[in-house]
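Checklist before submission:
- one chain only
- standard amino acids only
- sequence pasted in full

Submission:
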Amino acid sequence: MKKIISLFFLYVLNVPAQYIITSPYLDHPENSVGYVDSCAQFWEKAYEPTYGGYYTNIDRMGNVINGWGTTKNSLNQSRDAYGFLRAFMLTGKDQYLVDARRALDFLYKSAWDTTYGGWYKEVDKFGNRTKPFDNKTAFYQHYALLGITASYETTRDTTDWSWMMKSYAYNENKFWDNSSQYFGYYDYITYDGTAPSGKTFNSTVDAITTHVLHLYLMTGDSVYKARLLQLADNMLNRLTKSADQQVIGFAESYDTQWNPKNGTTDEEKRTIMGHVLKTAWCFGRIYQLFPDTAYLSAAEKLVKMVWEKGYDHQYGGPYKDYIRQTGVMMMYSQDTAKAWWQMEQAITAGLMLYQITGKEMYLQMADETLDFFMKYFVDHVYGDVYADLFKNGSNILAWGGGYFKGNDGKAAYHSIETGYYVYLYSKFFVKHEPATLFYNFAADTKTRDFRMSPISFPAAKLKIKEVTLNNSPYANVDYANRILTILPGVSGKFAVTYEAANPTSVASRNAIAVPPKFELAQNYPNPFNPSTTIQFSIPQTSSVTLKVYDTIGREVKVLVNEFQNAGIHQITLNASSLSSGIYFYRLQAGSYSEIKRMALLK
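Returned file contents:
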């Protein structure tokens, strides 16, 4: 009885430890480079060499699904190009530049409407327009710019710049509502560029993520800043404001005057957790550049809503879709589901808000979601990722399960972008280490100054550490202002290493090389089933034992019994053989001893 009372008081007096990272992709950011490389290799198989371009409908192994049609949608060309370009930026492999150029060349040749302007949604394998009289949507017009903008960032190619400006001008002239009261992008227009209608999440937030933000980061032009802030206003005063009238999420579909549509279609009644999180991510990125507290408050409001109402605290990661006015999950005749692209938004929004606020809840959300994503969404046999899974990570066979990897909504984009930002954000925000990206610039007859801004970050907090050109040191650099000067006739592969200056977020405990004191952390997760992680710190080499006891003091597991070096150590307890209940774990290191309580729930 005395032993139980003693254990209880030790538990009561315990001070909670900091959150402990579990995903090796956060703790070791270089792991993301290999992951991205494998995804890019998968999407190379979708290339069709005779007529060019990449097939849209791809099976699990990377083969075209002929029964679904041999189309080559404009969205897929842009998204595949984006994926290859980000893969080049992380790996430096020149083949990915070739792959991206193939996608963009096909896009430029086949998908532009030479009569009325704008991008066709679909072309066949030969490059012929299959539905030339379909409405043109903001979703497709924005996403056509995704790969083009990424290509210009990576290569500063003048052809890409010309197409980017041509496409951007079309969007501004045909889709932008410039009225002072209802400004914003329309959702769709007719094929000939008339009769604009509707406003949506996609017409608003996707404009930021596909091109507007990156155009501002690359150029610093006040035109893009103004548009970016107008879109932020739409997110704040339209999307986020509508959340106050919902049980969960926000209204995503509006009429032309920003009145929410409250019909019975899925599009009008649902809210998508990935969209809520993506909006929060965009708020965070804009806040980094223009620190208006309204943006940060809105971002935290949206993430907290998902965390409390739309997040799986058992397995990790956000759920998929809900009826926003009732809070009922949309099951689509299936079990609770998760989508690959929505996982990305939880990871990126979580890491961005962790950097800004230092609140470990955001780190936990990102870490749990990333761990689930890499374990279950990634196809460790054939590469890339599945589209939808049940909440526990099993396949949804009725939805195609693991049969397909590509369709008109899924290509190389989200899987590779996830790895790209995990690498950068974990390097800068979590580990506080330098990160290297590759670029390839062709020669020109004039001197050029390139503004190098790979992520949204305050100008004073990110600088260039070093640059190489074709593996040799390159010195024409304004390191503090991140300006790369390219002299006439200079060309080649540039490796630019960035580093965050004066980090302000809370550092990971794993970054501490030699801890200042003995310490036993609270296990995570807790409660758990059947596995949990226990971390402890020892400031000097010691004889260490770590044992698990039941509530009457019986020893049930010996986890450690050896000399260990100074440092932070982790051990995983697999409690499959134990019954549900309360247990205690005790660390003995030299003369230091500490006990903590944990709960096994089966």
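Reviewer check: The chain is about 40% helix and 20% strand.
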